[in-house]
């Protein structure tokens, strides 16, 4: 399988990011039913599923080069988007090993990893990188190992340290977040960083999820989908840069909302790391505009129904309130009232 | 090897390190390197005993991160449940065994200022990976081994920093004074114990009396797997089937084996998707989903992890 990269597309300025037909069809649409509420929607992260996004444990797609470049721009402007507390170095090496092995075994045409004892050589062909280093020796890489590898993979990353019967957000590479700040959250425990989420606490979702994650086993990663909506295909929607993107919410009209409003789906996976016993937590984002999504008839109908029945608290928390009526007006055109089948699959093979 | 739950291993070497202690070295019988071993991790080994399959968990003593081989040390015990006797009497070099991936219920706390380990006899095995991890990194620790006098040097080859190891045995002047040990530790020390119940209980009691915070005291909890337990029977009322749930499988696995579908997601007792109505019998709840009242009511069960107290469950399936 050859991936046709789109190296010149942008996630800022003129926002030239677009999905090809194939990318739309493989979009991890997150709504299995016509309504949405929080649940502990965790399942084993095994290969295969309703979307080809699940075919490999770490997914690489046509946006790879452009997304890595956008991360580099954000880090250049604000190096604080990467942070790791001192006791996380073992977990950093665990992470580089896991991620390099995933990429090189699933995408041998793009990535190679050669090992001669602790002397490793990493080749990243799309980004034109060749790096030899000594596994376990920080000074043989141009930056910390977790920063090094996460600069070369799409999506945000966190590492959760396990202690005191909880998980602590003690390392992260976060340049594409849905309005949360690594600098603010780093060092927090599971309940603290989930503090602002409405409704789910009352339902006991976080207690159950935490107990479950504490038992997560090496070799048996888990996944869940989360979602929000973003105006413009912008990755850096952080509190730090709010003045740059917050006002975009006021620019939506019935004429432009199909092009400008994007469903932002986050594929969260959770991996027990061996030496450190920490949990690697990749948060991989996928963006598709309403115009792109409604080309799949089932998704157009369902998105209209999910958004029109969304609890007010969730709409407020996700920052949708201002433009929700316009979005519903746009989407109503694509909802003929026909019944939908359960499950997220597109159920068509071409657009 | 990136994901999976079972390994096929070949016995690469067997070596007796004392009359009652046997070291077994495993290598991968499949392709490629093994998953990295971990500090404090264990391996569940499946042994084909004469009467039945035996599944025992053994601590990995290999240097954390090892991918070429795993090593365990097994004591010969007179009252063996079968595993110890099998490994000492029947296991041969070249044998192929099925094991779990390394699991870890006893990882060290990386933020500790100092690690205090107390081992009783063969209970030292998880700490051999601790000291292999800590040695040479300037990590502050003390390892206290309580054992028979004649075994005091058996583990010396795995103890790279002998000045941090203290051996105790049952003779005047050589017994471990647990309260005194706990009293002289700096704040933010973490205490770990692995050994026979009487030692573990003494240590836990001394820690409580000495005012140690609960979350700074850790003991190894083998035999605490998510599934598995005594066998029982389940009637699937709507499907008209009666099934046997074996010791080593979950109720959900047994139901699936019979071709009856139960919606499920996490398979770990958290998501609530496999919630099933109980028509008769008493569940043994092991999930994180049901609330106290629901547990007491006994009308629902999460078959992915929970089992039966009553020997028979009748389910609305």
Automatic annotation (TrEMBL), chain A:
Q: Which InterPro entries match?
A: HODM_asu-like
Know the name of this protein? DUF3445 domain-containing protein
Species this chain originates from: Zoogloea dura
From TrEMBL, chain B:
Q: Which residues form the FAD-binding FR-type domain?
A: 4-109
Q: Does the keyword RNA-binding apply?
A: no
Q: Give all residue intervals belonging to the 2Fe-2S ferredoxin-type domain.
A: 232-317
Query: What GO MF annotations does this protein's record show?
Result: 2 iron, 2 sulfur cluster binding; metal ion binding; oxidoreductase activity
Q: Which SUPFAM superfamilies match?
A: 2Fe-2S ferredoxin-like, Ferredoxin reductase-like, C-terminal NADP-linked domain, Riboflavin synthase domain-like
Xref: Pfam families: FAD_binding_6, Fer2
UniProt keywords (A-Z) are: 2Fe-2S, Flavoprotein, Iron, Iron-sulfur, Metal-binding, Oxidoreductase
Q: What is this protein called?
A: Oxidoreductase
Give the organism the record lists. Zoogloea dura
């Amino acid at each position: 399988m050859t991936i046709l990269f789109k190296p010149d597309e942008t996630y800022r300025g003129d926002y030239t990011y677009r999905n090809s037909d194939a990318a739309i069809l493989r979009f991890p649409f997150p709504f299995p039913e016509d309504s949405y509420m929080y649940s502990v929607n965790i399942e084993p992260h095994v290969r295969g599923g309703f979307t080809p996004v699940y075919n490999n444990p770490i997914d690489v797609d046509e946006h790879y080069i452009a997304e890595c470049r956008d991360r580099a721009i954000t880090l250049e402007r604000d190096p604080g988007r990467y942070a790791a507390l001192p006791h996380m170095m073992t977990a950093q090496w665990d992470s580089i090993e896991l991620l390099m092995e995933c990429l090189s075994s699933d995408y041998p045409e793009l990535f190679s990893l050669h090992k001669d004892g602790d002397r490793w050589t990493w080749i990243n062909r799309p980004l034109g990188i060749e790096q030899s280093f000594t596994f376990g020796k920080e000074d043989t890489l141009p930056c910390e190992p977790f920063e090094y590898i996460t600069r070369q993979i799409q999506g945000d990353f966190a590492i959760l340290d396990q202690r005191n019967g909880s998980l602590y957000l003690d390392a992260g590479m976060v340049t594409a977040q849905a309005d949360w700040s690594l600098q603010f959250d780093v060092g927090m425990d599971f309940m603290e960083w989930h503090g602002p989420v409405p409704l789910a606490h009352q339902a006991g979702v976080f207690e159950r999820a935490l107990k479950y994650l504490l038992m997560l086993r090496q070799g048996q990663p888990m996944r869940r989908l989360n979602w929000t909506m973003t105006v413009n295909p912008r990755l850096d929607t952080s509190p730090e840069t709010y003045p740059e993107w917050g006002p975009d919410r006021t620019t939506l009209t019935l004429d432009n909302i199909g092009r400008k409003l994007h469903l932002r789906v986050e594929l969260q996976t959770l991996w027990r790391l061996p030496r450190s016993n920490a949990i690697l937590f990749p948060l991989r984002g996928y963006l598709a505009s309403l115009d792109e999504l409604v080309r799949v008839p089932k998704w157009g109908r369902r998105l209209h129904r999910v958004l029109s029945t969304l609890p007010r608290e969730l709409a407020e928390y996700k920052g949708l309130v201002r433009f929700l009526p316009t979005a519903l007006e746009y989407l109503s055109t694509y909802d003929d009232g026909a019944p939908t089948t359960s499950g997220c699959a597109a159920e068509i093979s071409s657009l | 090897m990136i994901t999976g739950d079972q390994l096929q291993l070949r016995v690469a070497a067997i070596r007796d390190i004392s009359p009652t202690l046997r070291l077994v070295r495993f290598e991968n019988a499949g392709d490629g390197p093994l998953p990295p071993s971990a500090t404090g991790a264990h391996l569940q080994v499946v042994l084909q005993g004469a009467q039945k399959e035996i599944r025992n968990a053994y601590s990995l003593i290999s240097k954390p991160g090892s991918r070429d081989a795993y090593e365990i040390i097994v004591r010969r015990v007179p009252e063996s449940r079968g595993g110890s006797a099998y490994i000492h009497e029947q296991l041969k070099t070249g044998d192929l065994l099925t094991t779990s991936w390394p699991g870890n219920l006893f990882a060290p706390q990386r933020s500790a200022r100092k690690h205090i380990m107390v081992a009783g006899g063969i209970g030292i095995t998880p700490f051999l990976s601790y000291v292999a991890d800590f040695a040479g990194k300037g990590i502050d620790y003390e390892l206290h081994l309580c054992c028979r006098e004649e075994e005091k040097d058996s583990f010396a080859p795995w103890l790279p920093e002998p000045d941090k190891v203290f051996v105790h045995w049952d003779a005047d002047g050589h017994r471990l004074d647990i309260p005194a040990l706990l009293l002289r530790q700096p704040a933010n020390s973490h205490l770990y114990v692995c050994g026979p119940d009487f030692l573990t209980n003494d240590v836990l009691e001394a820690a409580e009396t000495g005012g140690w915070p609960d979350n700074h005291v850790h003991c190894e909890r083998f035999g605490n797997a998510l599934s598995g337990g005594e066998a029982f029977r389940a009637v699937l009322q709507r499907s008209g089937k009666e099934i046997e749930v074996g010791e080593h499988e979950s109720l959900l696995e047994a139901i699936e084996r019979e071709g009856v579908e139960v919606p499920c997601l996490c398979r770990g007792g958290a998501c609530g998707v496999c919630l099933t109505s109980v028509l008769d019998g008493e569940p043994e709840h092991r999930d994180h989903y049901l609330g106290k009242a629901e547990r007491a009511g006994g009308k629902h069960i999460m078959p992915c992890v929970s089992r039966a107290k009553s020997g028979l469950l009748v389910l609305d399936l």
